[in-house]
Automatic annotation (TrEMBL), chain A:
It comes from Paracoccus methylarcula. The keyword Calcium does not apply. Keywords: ATP-binding, Ligase, Nucleotide-binding, Protein biosynthesis. This is Glutamyl-tRNA(Gln) amidotransferase subunit A. Belongs to the amidase family. GatA subfamily.
Automatic annotation (TrEMBL), chain B:
Keywords: ATP-binding, Ligase, Nucleotide-binding, Protein biosynthesis. Belongs to the GatC family. Allows the formation of correctly charged Asn-tRNA(Asn) or Gln-tRNA(Gln) through the transamidation of misacylated Asp-tRNA(Asn) or Glu-tRNA(Gln) in organisms which lack either or both of asparaginyl-tRNA or glutaminyl-tRNA synthetases. The reaction takes place in the presence of glutamine and ATP through an activated phospho-Asp-tRNA(Asn) or phospho-Glu-tRNA(Gln). The gene is gatC. One of its GO terms (biological process) is glutaminyl-tRNAGln biosynthesis via transamidation. InterPro entries: Asp/Glu-ADT_sf_sub_c, GatC. This is Aspartyl/glutamyl-tRNA(Asn/Gln) amidotransferase subunit C. It holds the Pfam family GatC. It catalyses: L-glutamyl-tRNA(Gln) + L-glutamine + ATP + H2O = L-glutaminyl-tRNA(Gln) + L-glutamate + ADP + phosphate + H(+); L-aspartyl-tRNA(Asn) + L-glutamine + ATP + H2O = L-asparaginyl-tRNA(Asn) + L-glutamate + ADP + phosphate + 2 H(+). Its EC number is 6.3.5.-. It is an enzyme of class 6 (ligase). GO terms for molecular function: asparaginyl-tRNA synthase (glutamine-hydrolyzing) activity; ATP binding; glutaminyl-tRNA synthase (glutamine-hydrolyzing) activity; transferase activity.
Length: 494, 95
C-alpha cells in the first residue's frame, strides 16, 4: 500500500484489522510526511519515539484481537491538550517549558482506545484567534494556495490541526472550538470538523480559554471518521463537573444515509450584508442536496443572531480573564527576569506582559474591564441575558420540529497570511459570525467541505444539531458529504 | 463608550499586565474600538431575561467532600520556575 498517510480512520482501521498494514508502517508514513512538511509549521512538538512505541503496542493489541476502531491510528494533538511529559503550552510563551504531570481525559481516552500520538499541533495562543497567526511558534500555513501563489491561513484557532489533516500529516487530529475554532479551519482546508454538544467531551486537562463555551472535537478527512473519533473522545467524566451524565452512543451506527422526512432549517438572519455570492450559492446548493435526499427545507428565524458576536466577545474574554489569572509566574511556565527591588506585583505584571501575546493581552484586559465594578451589569450581565435570548431562539426553532440547521461555515474562503495584520481586532472577530451562535447555545455543529470557489479554494457548510443528537447530525452531514462529492486535495508544494 | 489612557492604565494594572506609558494611547484606542462593537448589545430588549450562566440544563454535579488525591508535592512543584524545600518561591512580599 502506498501513501498510507493519506488513508482515513475507517480505511486504515480496516486495513489494520485485516493485517494488510501495521500501525508502525502507518505511523512511519505520517512521521515521514511531517518531516517533509516543515513549511506548513503545523507540527510544533514532534514525538516520533513515543509514536513508534505506541504503534508497536497497538500492533500487539490488534494481533491479540482486542482492537477498537481507533487502535493503531496515528493522530496529531492540538497543543491545548495536556499530554503527560510532552510540552503542552497552548502556543503561549507563558507556558514555555511546561510539561504536564497528568493527561487530559480526551487524550487518555484516545490512548486507551489504542490511538498513536504523532506530536503537538500549532494553534492560536490559548485558542484565541481565527488565523493561527497568534502563536509563539509562528504562523501555521494552509496546504491550499491561492491562485496567485500567495500563502493562506489555515484558519484558527485549530489551524495546525486543520493543516495537518488536509496535508495528510496525520490520519486525524484533535481540535477545540470555543467560537468556531474547529469548524472555521476545517472549512478553510477542505476537511471535516465537528464541535460536539457542550458537556459531551470532558474539558479536564484541556487548557482553558472560556469554560462555558470550550469543547473539544475531532478534525478528520471524512464525516465517518468524525463519528468514529468522537466516539473515542467522548466520555462521562467525574473530573469535569460540566461533563454530561449521558451515555456515549455508537455514532458510527447512526450513519444510515437516510434523512427522509427530516426538517432542516435555513435561518434567514444568516444572510448577512456583504456575503459573497459564492457563499450564498453554496448554501443554496447544500439545501438542494439535502432536499434531493428527502429532507424538508424550512425557512426559520433566529432573530438574535446579529448579537451573538458582540455577546461572545464580552463573555469569552470575561471568562478568559479569570481562567488566565493562573499564569502568574509562580506555579508553572515562565517567570520574567526581575529587577532590583521588584516585588511580587512587578513579577506578575512583567511575567504576564512578556508571556502573553498581544491578542491574549487584549482579551484579558477587555474581560477585566467588563467584569470590573461599574461595568459588570452594563456589559457582562447584559451579554449573558442576550446569550439566554440566543439560546431561546434555537430552542424555539427546535420546538417547531426542526431537526437541524444549515448555514455557511465562514463568510469567505481562506484569506492570505498577514491579510489581517493591519485590520482592527473587530474585523478579525467577524470571521466567527456564523460559528459563535451555537457555542453560546451549547449546541453541536459540523463543518463539511461542499465545493471550491472561483480561485479553487475549499468552502464549507455547517449543520447545527439538537443538543446530544450528534449521531443524527453526523448522518445528515454524511448525506451532504456524499451529495457534494468533495474529493479535491491541495497540490503539494511544501 | 470610549476608554481614556488613565482607564487603560487602570485595567492593565487590574489584569496584572505591565504596559509601558507609550503604549497606552494605542491600547486605549483598541479597547475603545472593541467596546464600541459591544455597544450593539444595548439595542436588545433584555427586560425580564435571566442572565445565563451555563448551557447545561442539569444541576452541577456534587460529590462527597473528601480528599481524593494528594501526597505528590514533587509532581506539583515539578514545573515551578522557582521551588525550594517543597515550596513555591516568590520575591519577598512586604505589606
Amino acid at each position: 500500500m502506498s501513501d498510507l498517510n493519506r488513508l482515513t480512520i475507517a480505511e486504515a482501521g480496516a486495513a489494520l484489522r485485516k493485517g494488510e498494514v501495521t500501525s508502525l508502517e502507518l505511523t512511519d508514513a505520517c512521521l515521514a510526511a511531517i518531516e517533509g512538511a516543515g513549511a506548513l509549521n503545523a507540527v510544533v512538538h514532534g514525538t516520533p519515539d513515543k509514536a513508534r512505541e505506541m504503534a508497536r503496542a497497538a500492533d500487539a493489541r490488534i494481533k491479540s484481537g482486542d482492537a477498537t476502531p481507533m487502535t493503531g491510528i496515528p493522530l496529531g494533538i492540538k497543543d491545548v491538550f495536556c499530554v503527560k511529559g510532552v510540552p503542552s503550552q497552548a502556543a503561549s510563551r507563558i507556558l514555555d517549558g511546561f510539561k504536564p504531570e497528568y493527561e487530559s481525559t480526551v487524550t487518555q481516552n484516545l490512548w486507551d482506545a489504542g490511538a498513536v500520538m504523532l506530536g503537538k499541533l500549532n494553534m492560536d495562543e490559548f485558542a484565541m484567534g481565527s488565523a493561527n497567526e497568534n502563536s509563539c511558534y509562528g504562523r501555521a500555513v494552509n496546504p491550499w494556495k491561492a491562485a496567485d501563489g500567495r500563502e493562506l491561513t489555515p484558519g484558527g484557532s485549530s489551524g495546525g490541526s486543520a493543516a495537518a489533516v488536509a496535508a495528510d500529516l496525520c490520519i486525524a487530529a484533535t481540535g477545540t472550538d470555543t467560537g468556531g475554532s474547529i469548524r472555521q479551519p476545517a472549512a478553510f482546508t477542505g476537511t471535516v470538523g465537528m464541535r460536539p454538544t457542550y458537556g459531551r467531551v470532558s474539558r479536564w486537562g484541556v487548557i482553558a480559554y472560556a469554560s462555558s463555551l470550550d469543547q473539544a472535537g475531532p478534525m478528520t478527512k471524512t464525516v465517518r471518521d468524525a463519528a468514529i473519533m468522537l466516539g473515542a473522545m467522548a466520555s462521562v467524566d467525574e473530573k469535569d463537573s460540566t461533563s454530561a451524565d449521558i451515555p456515549v452512543p455508537d455514532f458510527e451506527a447512526a450513519l444510515t444515509g437516510d434523512i427522509r422526512g427530516k426538517k432542516i432549517g435555513i435561518p434567514r438572519e444568516y444572510r448577512v450584508d456583504g456575503m459573497p455570492a459564492e457563499i450564498d450559492q453554496l448554501w443554496q446548493k447544500g439545501a438542494d442536496m439535502l432536499r434531493d435526499a428527502g429532507a424538508e427545507i424550512v425557512d426559520i428565524s433566529l432573530p438574535h443572531t446579529k448579537y451573538a458576536l458582540p455577546a461572545y466577545y464580552v463573555i469569552a474574554p470575561a471568562e478568559a480573564s479569570s481562567n488566565l489569572a493562573r499564569y502568574d509566574g509562580v506555579r508553572y511556565g515562565r517567570r520574567a527576569k526581575l529587577g532590583q527591588g521588584d516585588g511580587i506585583t512587578e513579577m506578575y505584571e512583567k511575567t504576564r506582559a512578556e508571556g502573553f501575546g498581544p491578542e491574549v493581552q487584549r482579551r484579558i484586559m477587555i474581560g477585566t474591564y467588563v467584569l470590573s465594578a461599574g461595568f459588570y451589569d452594563a456589559y457582562y450581565n447584559r451579554a449573558r441575558k442576550v446569550r439566554a435570548l440566543i439560546k431561546r431562539d434555537f430552542d424555539e426553532a427546535y420546538a417547531q420540529g426542526i431537526d437541524s440547521i444549515l448555514a455557511p461555515a465562514t463568510p469567505s474562503a481562506a484569506f492570505p497570511l498577514g491579510a489581517m495584520d493591519q485590520a482592527d481586532p473587530v474585523q478579525m472577530y467577524l470571521n466567527d459570525v456564523f460559528t459563535v451562535t451555537l457555542n453560546l447555545a451549547g449546541l453541536p455543529g459540523i463543518s463539511v467541505p461542499v465545493g471550491l470557489d472561483k480561485q479553487g479554494l475549499p468552502l464549507g457548510l455547517q449543520l447545527i444539531g439538537r443538543a446530544f443528537e450528534e449521531g443524527e447530525l453526523l448522518n445528515q452531514a454524511l448525506v451532504l458529504e456524499q451529495a457534494a462529492g468533495f474529493v479535491a486535495k491541495p497540490e503539494r508544494w511544501w | 463608550m470610549s476608554i481614556t489612557e488613565n482607564e487603560a492604565r487602570k485595567v492593565a494594572h487590574l489584569a496584572r499586565i505591565a504596559v509601558e506609558d507609550e503604549a497606552l494611547p494605542a491600547l486605549a484606542r483598541e479597547l475603545s474600538g472593541i467596546l464600541q462593537f459591544m455597544e450593539q448589545l444595548n439595542e436588545v430588549d433584555v427586560e425580564g431575561v435571566e442572565p445565563m450562566t451555563g448551557v447545561t440544563p442539569m444541576r452541577l454535579k456534587r460529590r462527597e467532600d473528601v480528599v481524593t488525591t494528594g501526597g505528590m508535592p514533587g509532581q506539583i512543584l515539578s514545573n515551578a520556575p522557582d521551588a525550594r524545600e517543597g515550596f513555591f518561591a516568590v520575591p519577598k512580599v512586604v505589606e
